[in-house]
Design a protein that fits this description.
By secondary structure, the protein is an alpha/beta fold. The chain has helices at residues 10-16, 31-36, 40-46, 61-66, 95-106, and strands at 5-7, 20-26, 51-56, 74-79, 82-87. The chain has five helices and five strands; from the N terminus they run E-H-E-H-H-E-H-E-E-H. The chain has a five-stranded mixed beta sheet, sandwiched between helices. The mean pLDDT is 93. This is Thioredoxin.
């Protein structure tokens, strides 16, 4: 997840939502989140129209509760401050699953 910018406070999160942003909610202990590390940098490179941000759910619990992010890894996409899509559940996400989520936003 070297190509993701980490957000660690609500002010930074709110500011990041003002562009074309995909928020990646994850943790250090989650096996499916570790699986995500095997391909997320490639997805970031292939989708340069978007800025990808990493949010550690354990460090930003209140935000995750407000956004109803319980399952991880999960994704929320924003354009100009508005949520345009979300991919939130507790299931493992593959590279093709996440790319399909991104492609659907672009349509």
């Amino acid at each position: 997840m070297n190509n993701l910018l980490e957000l660690s406070d609500l002010e930074s999160y709110d500011k990041a939502t003002q562009g074309k942003a995909i928020m990646v909610f994850s943790t250090t202990w989650c096996p499916d989140c570790h699986f995500l590390k095997t391909f997320i940098d490639k997805l970031v490179e292939e989708n340069r129209d978007w800025t990808f941000y990493y949010i550690d759910r354990d460090k930003m619990v209140d935000l995750c509760i407000d956004l109803d992010i319980m399952g991880i890894p999960s994704f929320i996409a924003y354009k100009d401050g508005l949520e345009v899509s979300r991919f939130v559940n507790k299931l493992r996400k593959t590279q093709s699953d996440i790319q399909a989520f991104i492609d659907a936003i672009e349509e």
